[in-house]
Amino acid sequence: MFRGPQQHRSIKRFVFDKRVPVPKGGGAGLAANTVPLKPVRQSRFARLAWYAKMARIPFLITAIYGLGYRQGIMDAARNPLKLQQGTFESLCMDMGVRDGHDVEIVSERTHAPTKLRKLGSLYGENSNENIKHSVRAQKVADIGREIIRAARRYVRGELHDAMGKARAKLGDVSGISDKDLMKKLNEDEDVEFWLNSLERIEGFTKDGIQDWQYILVGTPVPNAFVTEVLPQRFFVTTGLFDEFIENDDELALVLGHEISHLIMGHLSTGNTIELFLRGLEILVLMLDPTEGLLSLGIVGFLASSRDALVAMHSRSNEHEADELGCKLAAMACYDTTRGSEVFRKMHELDEKMGSSGNDLMSSHPPSKERYETLKERSKSENMTKHSHCHQLKGRVRRALTRD
Q1: Half-sphere exposure (CA, 13 Å, Cβ side) for 192?
Q2: Which residue of 176, 382, 383, 398 shows the fewest CB atoms closer than 10 Å?
Q3: Are strands 213-217 and 233-237 parallel, antiparallel or unpaired?
Q4: What is the DSSP letter of 124?
């Protein structure tokens, strides 16, 4: 039946609600606004698909990491020396080196490369500057050699103690063969840790500390480091000498600090933590229910949070390396009280540059805090603690090699 305009406007509209009872016949003449509902089966399927999508994310991350890891193994197995040499060259270039003349290597017995693809020859002309570098490079080698020997003694001592504790945990081992006993001991967490540390120091050859190389890099950036990516190499820049190093004790403390990072496996644990945080970051971004809109707002926050957590872990590692580095320098018969002055100079430079070192994103603790801690620690960790430092042979050797 056709309704006129006036009649149409007079119709009342009613929205049905299951909570309000409607009397029989009470809806006559009323128009209803209803919202169509999705079928229950379709809604359940959508939820199931969403759960399946979320569950596959960890597997995708693991698969991508596995592919990269496998490719890295293949590249390393195909030509490990070429891969290391390319990494070495890239590292030098990242530090600002553009000419092989600015890099000098002192080797114990391994054959050092004399020419690189992009940097050219590693040995320059016989100029006064090159002679100066050679003296410094030999200084790094002489002191680095003593620090590495001290590190080996320390790690072997810790491994011996860990072996003893692991054997005590096993109780009666009279019925176990030597082979099975060694296998059980190597499964102990502490024993495994110190075995890995010993491998990073000694390598995999007989008397492996003879394979170390001491590399002086001609760059004004003050730095010294070791890395597991390029094993058994000490890197020291000329900028470190120019800015901070005035005597052998200061250099010994710096090198002791750097080798401590290698002993404690800080690079490996740092990479593992950063990999986990990046995977967690990807997971959070993929859980975004707004199909990417929310991610635009939180991606910066997630990256900053990751950097802050990594920096906090790094600061803890630096304190640990300071403590062990002081011990190693003392074991190598260097004056740790005198050596700790290098951190006072770093603090003075930080003040000059307007850096407090208290930044949440800073990977290192404040230099003043480190100096005060080391100054106090050097009272108990010094060469006077070690009897071998007072032998005549050692005293003559140190007198001949120190500034």
Answers
A1: 6
A2: 176
A3: parallel
A4: -
